[in-house]
Amino acid sequence: MDPAAVTPPPASISLRQLLMALGDSLVEVQAAPAGLDVEIRGVALLDPEDPPTAQPGELVLVIGARGRAALPALRAAARDSAAAVVVKLDGPGQAAALGETAAEAGVALLSLRGEARWEQVNALARAALDDAPPGRPGEGAEEGDLFSLAQTTAILTSGIVSIEDAANRVLAYSRSTDSDEIDDLRRRSILGWQGPEAYLAKLREWGVFQHLHSSDQVIGIDSHPELGIRRRLAVAIRSGERQLGTIWVQEGSTPLSEHSEQALLGAARVAAHHLVRRRRELSEDLTLTRTLLAGLLEGSTGPQPLATHLGFDASRPAAVLGFSYGTTGATAADTGHMGGAPELTHAEVTNLISVHIAARHRSALVTQLDPRIYVLLPQLPRSIDTCTLRGWGQDITDAARRHLGLHLRGSVGCVVSGLGNAPESRREADRILDAMMGAGLSTAVAALPDIQAEVLVSEMLTLLSTHPEIRDPRLTTLVAHDSRHQGRLAESLLAYLNSFGDVRAAAAQLHVHPNTLRYRIRRAEELTGLDLGRPDQRLLAMLQLRLPPTS
């Protein structure tokens, strides 16, 4: 058979790559029972007038049926081994039912956002497939490209090559058959995947890094036998004005070739394309992670897509920590300000939290869902306890105060049995933060058992605030009277009740004479008709008078 006549395999992409191409503004993952690396080989449009059929590996766009009406098409796509199905939902309750069916059928389910157009997702999906090279999805890994480039550069220069990123971390290197050719700097850099600090200090002293930062020309470094350094050349890998990394060529047992500098310049330009693509893909991967994480915490996406994407065990315990920052009362985060430090950015606070929590739990994920920052702790040890998690949160709030001058509040959501229950832990973390804001507690980090009474009172006040019909109109009248006459009757009555009827203690708190307070209490009873001898009326007054005057 003529090799030229052999038809190459069709282009394909993974579901992960498709999600990156479409973006979270178009679609949302509802189920991915086979993971995000399933292969997509085509796009099919399914009209309501067409029989529900599909081809293996297809992405099926169910155009004419919304919500539960798409169930026949979903089942047919699974029967025909389609890779994924895209539907529109009529309401939030349909996601769970359709997602459960998709999971049982073994086909991925994506929901198209209501305002998105079918022709848009169709065009983007087909473009992503058109851009994919023939062969297996993901073929040609970035590391392989860079190692191949390092080996080619070594052949062209007759030297020993390593490629590093802008932080001097080794990304790839050429092979050498003779270990005697490799100097100490090269050996230690490869073994540690980063240049030793003592050698890096020497290169800084000689101005090598300054040259690489400001120029795209090759620089030579003489040999220093006393330091174990042989002669080498270096060139910056640049994209415009930005330095992305460096290519180093060490001279071995034979001199570098005559055209080494020219070869090195060409290699740097090729490497720039690799690193630019790598940055873009890392950014897209991070965006997908954040989208799946936000969907999980908000309860709109199940745990399986995130677990598959990151290789988590969804059956192990998990918990959520919540953080907000600002002053007592409404936090700065909740009002859009930065708590007395306007120069701080959300990114700085998120970075601080990320660094500190990563040192304690390698699988931790951090995201901001305005106005708060959340830490998802998947794959926790089954022996983990709330005390340990509170300690992690306390370390973070201490660091924020020490390094950023920021008053950070933290809450510890309940430890749940699996990743799928993470929304429950997030809701508990929010309940705690809400109570800490309203009560003005000085506690920096709390779990529910620490402030359970404050949490429940806070939720009762929220109920009273949002349902005026369950308030006592007599107390509403008292607050309105104070507002019209700039009085303090409501404030005085609440202080009296909080002090269990101890007039002297309440008067001291208000900085008034006890007789003044007695007059105010009598006046409040006359205006409202309240009988403070009745426990139920006292209890209701203690709650309702805690509402802000504008509620």
Descriptive tags:
disordered N terminus; alpha+beta; 5-stranded mixed sheet; 5-stranded antiparallel sheet; flat; 551 residues
Question: How would you characterize this protein structure?
Answer:
The protein has 551 residues and is α+β, with helices and mostly antiparallel strands. The chain is 47% helix and 17% strand. It is built from 20 helices and 17 strands. The chain has helices spanning 15-22, 71-79, 93-105, 118-131, 142-157, 184-192, 197-205, 208-214, 260-298, 303-310, 332-335, 346-358, 386-404, 422-439, 452-466, 473-485, 489-498, 503-510, 514-528, 535-544, and strands at residues 13-14, 27-31, 39-40, 42-46, 58-66, 84-88, 108-112, 159-165, 170-173, 219-221, 232-239, 242-251, 319-325, 365-369, 372-377, 408-412, 445-447. Strands 2-7-6-5-4 form a 5-stranded mixed β-sheet, with helices on both faces. A 5-stranded antiparallel β-sheet has the order 9-8-12-11-10, with helices on both faces. Strands 14-15-13-16-17 form a 5-stranded mixed β-sheet, sandwiched between helices. The longest helix is centred in the middle third of the chain and has 39 residues, at 260-298. The relative contact order is 0.06. Mean pLDDT is 80; it is low at 1-9, 135-144, 190-194 and 327-343.
